[in-house]
Design goal:
Serine Threonine Protein Phosphatase 5, Tetratricopeptide repeat, 20 helices
Length: 400
């Protein structure tokens, strides 16, 4: 979320006014606090203004607001949230503060509260495309692609020639929903407005890769990294491209760089998949474990990591495959649903000499239900692979 946020943040800063004679140092701090420069000096200048005790009411609220935006650019969502709370306390009708608090809440993963704040900002100051872009990104992070797309389309209608962010956000939704040509076209439109945006090139690279055009995808990913050699997302996408063309070592190297720059769940999960392809199940398991602890990333990436980790552990310890092949005439045959290994026939846990419940308890499962439990689903109709991996989570690593 917020990949193209900095220009939107700068637009949210407000100039201060003074109702008292100001010293030269306060005047200088005011200029810096008003924004447009580096975030850390701005936050320090705003802090000095607050500590001076010379500001009251609206001016004090605006100072907190501007420092809040500086904290956001410093990726300090906690302090930003506290400052926007103060700003709203002093100036309840300050649209920028509601917008900023929504952004801080979104950064902390409190997406529904963020949407509520974006709605309030819209009420206070209608007609701003940035509200729709940020609310759309919150919807997208919640998995509500249709409402996200509606917001991005509205932002584009409001600023068709001056808002590349909306085009790229729309492109991401199109890619996510499988409309790769529309995704590429939307990124093309955004790049016509701002042709040197590294994140846009990385996003278009992802769309090309999903479409199956790995050559053009690699060209775009390389361009993104030429423009910004420290862009974690570009390393992530290029790693995916290398993985898809069969270069696992290059893929892992790029995922390493992405993780160094941003501990995104996708980077851990995708690196884990690359390690799996190399037959390194211990490193893969470790990456899936790290993905589950990552604070950056969508919920579906955590779900994928959870699934892969569960399959690694279950396949290593039990060597069993899909459920659904249990004979109805033999209720004692209980097959664990752990994944697809078509080269190996389904095997009941009973053949391994273990009680089904005890076997999974040793793996660290929270509970055993469905087709895995002889007390439930004896006919093999209940308990799907997702039933195991989403609810019962083995937590011990596979054996070396």
């Amino acid at each position: 979320m917020g990949r193209w946020l900095k220009p939107l943040l700068i637009a949210g800063m407000i100039s201060l006014t003074y109702a008292f004679p100001a010293s030269a140092s306060l005047v200088e701090d005011r200029k810096v606090c008003d924004g447009g420069g580096a975030a850390e000096p701005q936050a320090q200048a705003c802090s000095r203004l607050i500590a001076s005790g010379r500001f009251k009411g609206r001016d004090l609220g605006v100072t907190y607001n501007n420092r809040g935006f500086a904290y956001l650019m410093m990726k300090d969502a906690g302090n930003a949230l506290a400052d926007f709370e103060k700003a709203i306390q002093f100036v309840p009708t300050l649209e920028d503060a509601w917008f900023g608090r929504g952004r801080a809440l979104a950064a902390r993963g409190e997406l529904q509260r963020a949407i509520t704040d974006f709605n309030r900002a819209m009420e206070l100051k209608p007609g701003l495309a940035r509200h729709y872009v940020l609310r759309g990104e919150a919807f997208a992070s919640m998995g509500d692609n249709q409402r996200a797309l509606t917001d991005f389309e509205q932002a584009i209608r409001m600023e068709p020639n001056n808002n590349p962010f909306a085009y790229h956000a729309r492109g991401a939704i199109y890619r996510r929903t499988g409309n790769f040509d529309a995704a590429i076209a939307s990124h093309d439109q955004g790049l016509r407005i701002h042709p040197v945006d590294p994140y846009a090139f990385a996003s278009r690279a992802y769309a090309f890769s999903e479409k199956g055009d790995q050559n053009r995808a690699l060209t775009d990913a390389d361009e993104a990294l030429r423009l910004n050699g420290n862009l974690a997302y570009a390393f992530l996408v290029r790693g995916l491209i290398f993985s898809r063309i069969g270069n696992a070592s290059r893929a892992i190297a790029d995922y390493d760089q992405s993780i160094r720059l941003s501990q995104d769940a996708r980077a851990y999960t995708w690196r884990g998949l690359a390690h799996e392809k190399n037959g390194d199940t211990l490193r893969a398991w470790s990456d899936y474990q790290d993905a589950l602890g990552a604070t950056v990333g969508r919920k579906d990436e955590h779900a994928l990591a959870l699934r892969r980790r569960s399959l690694l552990v279950a396949e290593d310890h039990l060597r069993v495959v899909r459920a659904g092949e249990v004979g109805k005439d033999d209720p004692g045959r209980v097959v664990v649903a752990v994944g697809e290994r078509p080269s190996e026939p389904a095997r009941p846990i009973s053949e391994l000499g273990d009680d089904p419940i005890d076997a999974f308890a040793r793996l660290g499962a929270d509970e055993v239900r469905g087709a895995m439990d002889p007390r439930h689903g004896r006919d093999g109709d209940s308990g799907a692979p997702s039933d195991l991996v989403d609810r019962r989570v083995p937590t011990s690593p596979p054996r070396a």
